[in-house]
Write a structure and sequence with these properties.
434 Repressor (Amino-terminal Domain); 2 domains; about 140 residues; three-stranded antiparallel sheet; two-stranded antiparallel sheet; elongated; Double Stranded RNA Binding Domain; alpha+beta
């Protein structure tokens, strides 16, 4: 799973750089410059993904970039999205995941809470219990 989402950038009538996410229509932001707009877009992307997890909505796959700039969430949110998607794909309940991990169901609730500062090690343990592995990559900003 890759969470590098392409964006469209346009300049509005006030000269601000407006960013839209074709894959996440609810996600939009802007900035005084292109660079600022892309930084704001990363924050907006995290909020949109967190909102989808909170409302138990589907996370769309990122469409091809086709020469467009792209934005990705931070590692922790990406890991939480990956866990959320792996849990849904496996058809496993949160209670069953807690049993597999040997933890209380509250721990699983926290792992899926985008606002909770879960450790990447703990998130990796959860996806491993679903027969997946988290991988970390490095991309130039």
């Amino acid at each position: 799973m890759d969470y590098l989402y392409p964006v469209d950038i346009r300049i509005d009538e006030d000269g601000r750089h407006v960013v839209n996410f074709p894959d996440l229509p609810e996600c939009m932001t802007d900035g005084a410059s292109r660079a600022e707009a892309l930084v704001e877009a990363a924050d907006a992307l995290e909020e949109a993904l967190a909102g989808r997890i909170h409302h138990k909505e589907q996370i769309p796959a990122a469409s091809p970039r086709r020469g467009r700039p792209a934005v990705m969430p931070g590692a922790r949110i990406a890991a939480k999205v990956a866990l959320y998607q792996a849990l849904a794909a496996a058809g496993v309940s949160r209670i069953e995941l807690a049993r597999r991990m040997g933890v209380d169901k509250t721990e699983v609730r926290r792992l899926l809470d985008p606002r909770h500062a879960s450790s990447l090690d703990r998130l990796d343990q959860a996806v491993t219990a679903l027969s997946h592995r988290l991988t970390i990559g490095l991309r130039a900003a």
